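Many introductory courses stop at the sequence. We go one step further.
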Amino acid sequence: MTPDSAPALLALHAVRITGLADTPAVAHRYGLDPAETKELLLDAEAHGWVEHTSFAGTGGWSLTGRGRAENERLLAAELAHAGGAEEVRDVYRAFLPLNALLLRACTDWQLRPTAGDRLAVNDHADPAWDARILRELGEIGEGLQPLADRLGSVLARFRGYDTRFAAALARAGAGRPAGSTAPTSTPAIVSGSSSTKTSSPRWASTATRNPDPPLIRRRPSREPFLTPEQSDQ
């Protein structure tokens, strides 16, 4: 039977993945009980692992430096206990070619070079251009599914990334934002968070770190996609 992760680990890791989220969003990420999640986050705050900030009517939980270190420790211990480090390494190596294709497709979705501007924003006025990208992303999704299945056999929390990818791709194909219903957003498919620091995917950067397979997130339409993840997460 595939092991389930401890709720405290899931709550802390959900904060890390979301970057900044309120309690219901953190609970939703792994299907946790909202009331239990609130208590877990308050405990984590008491340990100095997370902090809650508010600004201009919005707010949420974010990970501290100490929290990131604790998250890494918990993930490494969990993976070692599950005995799946070698499988994670193998899946990571198999994912690298897909990641290269993903990077190119995301850049093409955000940018459509013109004669006078090679960094011109894709205004999605060319159906053929967008259709090609969506076909490429569909092929990436087909390649992702067996990899996600392999990860899901190591730990239960690894499941579902391929289905979320497929759902977001369907929204993009229907002309709706991939990661949000907001009409002002352009869908971008990323394999981590929205930073542009490195080119190695966060989800399986090492065998002792948490493998987070690709997911789809909203990205501002004027911010070109360059890399899949945030190196310090």
